[in-house]
Give the backbone structure.
Amino acid sequence: MSKQVAVILSGCGVHDGSEIYETTLTLLRLDQLGLGYCCFAPDIAQHHVIDHRSGEEVEGESRNVLVESARLARGDIQSLDELEADEFDAVIMPGGFGAAKNLSSFAMDGAEMRVLDELKEALEGFHEARKPIGLMCISPVMVPHLLGPGIAVTIGQDPGVSGALSAMGGLHRTCSVEDIVVDFEHRVVTTPAYMLATRISEAAKGIFKLVDRVDELMDL
C-alpha cells in the first residue's frame, strides 16, 4: 500500500460525531482500492452528547471526540495535532454533525462559525502541497474557512446550508446523492452523502466515487 490517506473523524454517531455509515464506506473503499489509511480526531470534549434513540441531548454527560472516534477506527487512531500533511498523499473527512459541532461551530453559528485551529492547520498543509482533499455530507460547509473562498463544493440541495456557504465566500454546486463535485484547480472533491441519502446504498454510490476520484488525483 504505497499511497496513504488521512481520515479525519469528529466523534461517533450522526447527531454528535462522525456519521458511522459514511466513515465505514470511506474506509471500505480505501481498502478495496489498496490504499493505506490512518484515522485522526481532535483530543477535545464533544460539544454535547445526543441520545441517538430519542434524538435528545443527554444532560450532564461529557465525552471526548478522540475517544469516541476510536470506536470507528477500532482503536487505531491518532490525535489530530499529530497529523502531518507531508506524511500522506490525501485527506478525507466524513460528515455527521460532529463536523458542525466539534470540528466547527456551524451548527450553532451558521456563516459566522469558527473552525478548529488544528483542523485548519492540517488542511492548509494538504492544500498548499496540492494534495487531494475529500469532504462529504455537511463537512464541505467548512471549506471557505479552511481553504479560502471561491472553491466549488456541494452539500447537495439544502438551500439554507448552501446559502450560508455562499455567504462565507464558498461556491456551491447542486449535486445528486450518487454524484460528486470536483474542483480540479484546488483538488477538492465533495459529495452529499447523508445530506440526501435515504439508505446506505445511495450514500455508497457518491462516497465510492469520491474515494475513486481522490485516488485518481493522487496520480496527477
Remarks:
- The first strand starts at residue 4 and ends at 8.
- Residues 200-217 form the longest helix (18 residues).
